[in-house]
Amino acid sequence: MRKYLIVSAVILFFSTAVALKKNPKPYAFPNPYNIADGRKLTIHVPLKKNSLITVDVYSQSGHFIRRIANKKLSSISNSFKWDGKDDEKMRVKSGLYFIHIIQKINKLTYKDVFKLAVY
Question: Does residue 1 belong to any structural domain of this protein?
Answer without folding.
Answer: no
